Amino acid sequence: MSSSTPIAIVGIGGIFPGRGDVTGFWRDLFEGRDLLTPVPASHWLVEDYYDDNPRTPDKTYGKRGGFLSPLAFDPLAFGISPKAMEATDSAQLLALVAARRVLEDIERDSAGKIDKARTSVILGVASATELTAHMAGRLQRPVWVNALREAGLPEGEVQDIAARMDGHYSQWQEATFPGLLGNVVAGRIANRLDLGGSNYVTDAACASSLSALQIALHELRAGDSDTVLTGGVDALNDILMYMCFSKTPALSPTGDCRPFSADADGTMLGEAVGMLALRRLEDAERDGNTIHAVIRGLGGASDGAGTAIYSPRPGGQARALSRAYEQAGYGPETVDLVEAHGTGTKAGDKAELDSLHMVFGEVAAEAPWCALGSVKSQIGHTKAAAGAASLIKTVQALSRKILPATLKVEEPAEVVRESTAFYLNTEARPWIAPKSRPRRAAVSSFGFGGSNFHVTLEEYTGKRAVKPYRVLPAELFLFSGSDAGAVANAIEAQAAGLTEADMPSAASASHAAFKVSDTVRVSLLAETLEDFTSKAADMAARLRKGALTGPFKPGCHAATGPAREGKVAFMFAGQGSQYVGMGADLAMAFPEARAVWDRAAGHKHVGPLRLDKLSFPPAAFDQVEFSQSTERLTQMQHAQPAIAAVALSQLALANQLGLKPDMAAGHSFGEIMALYSAGVMKEAAALTIAAQRGALMAEAARATEGKMLALQADAGTVQPILDQVGKGLVLANDNAPDQVVLSGPAKLVEAAEAEAKQRGLKARFLPVATAFHSEIVAGAVEPFQAVIEGEKL
């Protein structure tokens, strides 16, 4: 079997700071939540160990991090004696929960076609565990006794105090030795979940997860395993770990993690458990497994000789990258997203960017094309689990077609500012791609000792591609029935046992069951499970009392009697309605809307314009950049096809909802979209006509600068201004009794604005590229007519 055999990711699971599970983790990432919090008292007391001076002996200057929320654990459900819990490190127990979630993911979505006897567990785990340090502390009794004796205390008091100190530590028992071993993190999973393949852990410090992944790929490609659970486990944020990072020193003195920012000053610690189930792609397709993404290549390398064992070397990291792309069979120029190691330390970030540029910088490009980010800006550095957290983030980005954000960058580091390959993605954006190639991403992970790994992934587009839960700011629930009592029962039944992860599927199911013809109809818009539970209880109580006239809680509504009849009209906007980011929310939330942009990216006329990059550009870091993005989108050859793409994506969603217009109209350019909506032309033709119209008008207007002016007045009031300014200025739009638009050469429109203000009229220039509906663009009429006549509608 080849070393480049593609490997499918067929299951994911984990436990992370914030909402906790994989879906909640993505939602936290997508919403841009900062999950760094003060150290919980359950870990260690800040007042015992904190000092803001990094040089203070035995003190840490860090007091924040990314911590897992308390998790209920039933030992009997895993066949573990409750007595053994005290003697078992929390990493082993958390890993067991995550592993069961991964197996449930495979078995639920893949009809259970997994041979457990040939399923291995290979995890990245740093060699130390919290229980190891805890039990080692108990062995310090001779040191305590000697110190107490030297203080002159009587022997009875010495022994009494030492015994009291013993009481703060767990007692040794038969289960303690295996309970503190790092390798048993994997062994306990295999033991409790009855997996018969290999089980062991790898330690490459902060690169442990990807070192485990490398061996997992070897197992599958060699045929030694058919399924492998891999990833990383790190629940170690005790005071020893904080002390280690403080005395390096690597922690941020300002208490935040800002990867690739000009303000980056160190990292923050975090906790996480992340696991993935892997199978050979051909086996996964044969057995009908649900596939989240495909791993194409993984490269590893060592730094070799250097100045210090903990100092990263760009050359070693670059070797890992080059080997990954050699194995993958494609180059870095096809990669849209790099989830970097990105710790937030100045030396580490610079070394990583230097290494990336050694490989990506060889690609000639007009502008940076690859998004760069790091999950550590939100959850901190999860050490042995860092690569697993990055992998799961990236796998979800691929399956959801969204470029996730990296937080806390007000000004990029200089090496990013100067990059010809990378830009910092600081806000979630639709990930648009033509059909010519799949979306591709990569993940880097580096560890002390010069351990370097880089893995390349691509989206899976076959029939078994995962359909991930959608993530929206709120979910809409619909209920209907023949009477109020029946609807109240339905609402209460929905609220019983509902989980936050189930909200998207439950909301969709409620839409399918809803009947507009029912006598009683209720809608509930809920942002969270708690929000839904509260609104559901309130609405059910109102239904039982017959109090359906309101006022209701925000986002709630009830109606009785027959549905209101009437016709539906669609109105489409013209140029001037464009703005940076338009349509992004729909494209990220609804696959039907995003697919329109994908098709536009592969369109013969519109594709080269890359409308998605014009409409969803990387975040601007200053007003100049923002103005440049706005100006590019305002240009006619860009604005008109971009507005068309937005309208088409909206119509795709409306069509999915079964919403059909009885009539359609358009304002200026919007007439084209109205014609499309009415069935006059197909999508490809609409995009072609939009692009050609914009290009021809831009060419016609090239010789004369034009402007448009909106006036808050009626046509009769404005006519004297037209008469005074003279020929060339026209009344372009008579929009309403109190709003008209003038159009013409810039000097005439500016004169009209001055005259309007003198007459006390409110006036403002429109954000358009030229003077539409005037003689300035008349030269586009004949060639545009030829375009329409030559287009197959």
Give a structural overview.
The protein has 793 residues and is α/β, with parallel strands linked by helices. The protein contains 29 helices and 25 strands. It has an 11-stranded mixed sheet with strand order 5-4-6-8-1-9-16-15-10-11-13, with helices on both faces. Helix 24 (636-656) runs parallel beside helix 25. The radius of gyration is 31 Å and the shape is globular. The mean pLDDT is 92.
Keywords, separated by commas or semicolons:
793 residues; alpha/beta; eleven-stranded mixed beta sheet; four-stranded antiparallel beta sheet; 25 strands
Q: How do the helices and strands line up, and which of them pair or pack?
A:
Blueprint: E1 7-15, H1 22-31, E2 37-38, H2 46-49, E3 64-66, H3 90-109, E4 119-125, H4 130-138, H5 141-150, H6 155-166, H7 176-180, H8 184-192, E5 199-202, H9 208-222, E6 227-234, H10 239-246, E7 269-270, E8 272-280, H11 281-286, E9 293-302, H12 314-328, E10 337-339, H13 346-360, E11 370-373, H14 376-379, H15 386-400, E12 402-403, H16 414-417, E13 422-424, E14 429-430, E15 440-447, E16 451-458, E17 475-481, H17 484-495, H18 503-513, E18 520-526, H19 529-545, E19 556-560, E20 569-572, H20 584-589, H21 591-601, H22 611-615, H23 623-634, H24 636-656, E21 663-666, H25 670-677, H26 683-700, E22 706-711, H27 715-725, E23 730-736, E24 739-745, H28 746-758, E25 763-765, H29 781-790
Parallel strand pairs: 3-7, 4-5, 4-6, 10-11, 10-15, 11-13, 20-21
Antiparallel strand pairs: 1-8, 1-9, 2-3, 6-8, 9-16, 12-14, 15-16, 17-18, 18-19, 22-24, 22-25, 23-24
Helix pairs in contact: 3-8, 5-6, 12-13, 17-19, 21-24, 24-25, 24-26, 26-29, 27-28
